[in-house]
User: Fold this.
Amino acid sequence: MIEFLKILCKLFIFPGFLFLSVYSFLLDFLDRKLYARMQNRVGPPWYQPLADFLKLIGKKTIIPADANAVIFSVMPLVSLAAVTVGFIYLPVLGKEAIFSFSGDFVIVLYLLAIPPLAAFLAGWYSRAVYSTIGATRILTQMFAYEVPLFISVLAPTLIAGTWSITELTGFYAAHPLYIFINLPVAITALISFQCKLERAPFDSPEAETEIVSGALVEYSGRLLAFFKLAHNCELLFVISLFSAIYLPFMTGIIWVDFILYIVKTLFILLLLILMRVTMARIEINNTLNFCWKYLAPVTLGQVILNLLLRGVL
Amino acid sequence: MNREEAIVNSICGRFPFLADRIYIQKDKRIFTKSLLREEFEQVIAYVHDELNFTRVSHVVGTDDGENLGLLYIFSGSEDILLILRESVPKSNPVIKSISDMYPSIVLHERELVDLFGVVVEGLPEGPHYPLPDGWPEGNYPMRKEWNPKHFNKDTMTYEEPQEKEVQKNE
Amino acid sequence: MSENISNNNKIVLPIGPQHPSLDEPGRFDITLEGEKVVNAVVGVGYNHRGLEKVCESKNYIQDLYIIERVCGICSHSHSTAFCMAVEELAGVTVPQRAEYIRVVVAELERLHSHLLWLGVACHEIGFDTMFMYTWRDREKVLDVLATVGGNRVNYGINTIGGVRRDFNETINSEILKTVDSLEEDIKRYLEIAMTETTLISRLKSKGKLSHEDALKYGAVGPVARAAGIAIDIRVTEPYGAYKEIPVNVITDTNEDVYGRTAVRILEMQESINIIRYCINNMPEGTLTVKVPRRIPAGEVIVRVEAPRGEDIHYLRSNGTDIPDRVRVRAPTEANWHGMKHMLKGGNLADVPITIAAIDPCYSCTDRAIVISSEKNTEVMDWRGLRRYGIDWYKKQNIDLTSLKIKEV
Assistant:
């Protein structure tokens, strides 16, 4: 019984859902604050993301007459659920995730693809002009980043020889020097993650000056709040995944590792913000070109290198 | 002989009837007095094709009492403004669009249609400009007799008051 | 909204009247095939306020204040043009010091307009950092303009026959200090525009308007100059103090949005040079000459180089103190014609920046009628406003009727 409660506690409170949402709010605040400070602005107070969320929860939800009401109202939850479920396979507290099995890597990658698909369906079934274009752009962007992203995430597993994130982290924690072999894919992964999160310069699916806010233009109230929450959680999810694969430095002491985890996530967030702050929005066709011309070849090269090294190491 | 005079001379040489109706107001400004429709068309073709006045900056509508005046402002590579004036009676204000020769005139011609009630033949189809959709027919705000005080904004109707004397005293 | 999506995969995307990329209402119906723009319909007229009609019922001095409000950004250009027109009809010569002050304010206005534009353009291409920086630096110019004229945008410097405010040592040194620091900023912007690849990829060969097309559609200002047309009224038809001040016409041969950006950034540098020259060579003297209330009959066409291009004012007087006809041709009005041509064939992503690249000012274009189709609006005179105010406060249980205010 106590064992069961412990698991429930892990799942829902720490390091599960509650931690995920609270920390993602914090990251969202830091994201906005640092972004603002780098632009010479004041930026929001620390509670702003939470205030936004609560405000949206209290607002009236409008479902357009033309929209498919079921899909329209289910998609935010699908998005949020996918991220939450994916998060439990990531090591947060120490080396071990809440759950892990030998093929969880594949599951996580699948779950990673769900939020954009949910946004696509939401936009498509809103039946509005802006959201249709936004939805099409989300799908186009997925075609651009999926392959480089997957290959760069999978390349490190070739050396480790495992498909479990917990084991992968453990392997690299034991052989910290091997991490530097994966440096090229770490960079491509960072760029692909930025692309996946639809942050500038890859924010053309929600380019406000062109298509207002893209796929989610018809959303309001509670449904929008959950979409935003899902998006925040996705940010933390992606950052945690990155730190688990490419920055698996561990001490073995569980709470020190946790602090290390926080430091790592903040560092990755800083890199993502720097990318966001220094560049103009890239057009969707240029995003495609960039991902396939530059990112994909680099990741493929890494795969070949890692296959060769696997025989040596 | 300066450039302005050269232009005036070449226009007068081609169209002798213009001799007493074209004048140089000052540097870089050549005005004509009112031309008739047929004269205007001839002159405009000439200045466009041969004198190289390829840009039209503007057309100003004016209310001259019985008539409506139209001032077409042309400029070319030499940066002299040539102002051709045309006059149409208010009772039958029909002109021909010159948008085939000068594509940039369309917006200004639309403005003549809306604000002065000029009928422009050959104007390409397009939205109203600048008055809103649903503006009542027969209301041409830039004509002098049109007084904004008599326009009811709620019903979008224009009602001329019966006692004109009272209006004047106000 | 589903009527916007037709069977042959063409989507009609409405941009406007309200849209995040437009600062003022205007409507662009963009027909899309995928991401490609196959047709564009430009609709303006939402800001028609009938100012020209109002001008025909007020005297020249009152009109000056109406004309200054034609546009929020290039207010000084419009009022300068109107003053020049009236002064020419009245046959007076403005004192030289006043001409110099007008030029300094005009160039400060150009700086502030171009900085504003740069910010808006960067926002349109999703480069918010640059947007924030340019607008931060624009504040410096606005502060100086507020010191000079007491207001951030409608400075009210011009009056018929001269200017209303003088420059002193404090103002001069403040202006010089501001332009010095702005010069540094502008160098940085130029460097960013020359080197930042994402920025260049968003601007290069977008919204093409070739030399021939620019002539054909009558483009003016930076749009024309970016297509290699050396048209700048300050040089081609110098007015006021520009007759004495050296001005370089900045042109570019890119014929696209990138060229327009480059022209505007370099023009800011040129403006700074002009301001320095004016401050250092400003003649002493009076500020105004007397202009009669009744202006002799006649007509005049005046051209002024506003930040956005050539501004044409037509003024006809009938010998009274009220003008017979006032007509304002704002620069944006001339640049609209080529818009459809510029938009066609581009991508949807290029639409906002292409529209922004002519620096559209919808208010300028539409100018002005007191009529508004909106309900519950009415035009109030001074007394009506006062009565309204007193009544409003009465409803809040504050009685102001005992207050003595001089009736105007």
